[in-house]
Amino acid sequence: MSSMIRLAAITLFAGVLSATSSLAQAPGYVRVKLVKAGLMVGAGGGSGVLTYRGRNYPFRVSGLSLGVTAGASVSRLEGWASGIKQVNDFSGTYSSVGGGGAFVGGVGGVHLANQKGVKIDLQGPKAGMEFAANLSEVRISLK
To answer: What is the residue-wise DSSP string for 65-90?
Structure first.
């Protein structure tokens, strides 16, 4: 009888432990508006909102891209951030390698990762005239 109680207690403890670890890295929903312009070296900035565990956290975005960049664009991107253990993990310097383009309108997307293990995947409409194939560094800071 005591072995059944011990087995039930171990099973309950294991269930609580696995539920706690899955909550430790809940995904966050990200919405951001970016304005970008450049010729060879691009610069941009914007603002957005991270929705994480039922709360909204406004943030600022600034960045620099090196490579082939020409034109200007405005993007409204949405997506998910994963690997967040605490909301401060979202702030930091993100890197991305990629490319894209827009002529009057189009769709853009970006995949970013920071040194704290947070990964952000965003996509959405882009307006303007731009061509880019570059290495980007993006800085995100919570307001």
So the answer is: EEEEEEEEEEEEEEEEEE--SSGGGG
